[in-house]
Amino acid sequence: DAGVTQSPTHLIKTRGQQVTLRCSPISGHKSVSWYQQVLGQGPQFIFQYYEKEERGRGNFPDRFSARQFPNYSSELNVNALLLGDSALYLCASRQSGRALYWEQYFGPGTRLTVT
Amino acid sequence: GQQLNQSPQSMFIQEGEDVSMNCTSSSIFNTWLWYKQDPGEGPVLLIALYKAGELTSNGRLTAQFGITRKDSFLNISASIPSDVGIYFCAGQEGGSNYKLTFGKGTLLTVNP
To answer: pLDDT digit string (tens) for A56-67?
Structure first.
């Protein structure tokens, strides 16, 4: 079975622009989460979506938004890009939103560079 | 927000040696996960732990969920060159049913 896929793999944007990142979860997984990983740090939680609803949000500004589609794929949008938004953006999928099933599987990430 | 303290920050060992790393938190966690990340790739899940005191193995890897529910450790036995990478602990905090909190990682280098 295919793992979590993300597109694009790399992206270069200018300050003030907007970006959309895409993620397809593992087949059968209904929960998608987004994380930001800056160099030298562990991933930081941005959003979790389950059954197309936002179930949690991390400490990120309103410039960050996301949605989940009926096929459980997801998009992360970032508006008014800042230099500090440069990072690896990771998508993770999980079988369900239930507490007992916490194995999250990550995609390869999208490397965003803001100049 | 909650931070996980992961140590050591880096390790340089000889092939064949055993490795131990740990993670601590200031609050109780219900789940501990260990991931490995290679350069330019996403983290790969190694082991998941769900009960205090649980000891779980995956090949040469062994991880334990601390009795206090505030710590976890990962051991790698008989290290090989492909063990090189960054190892992250991650936890699901009690009362937070939607996110994982990660440590800052342990960079492991194995000298052949």
So the answer is: 899 999 999 999
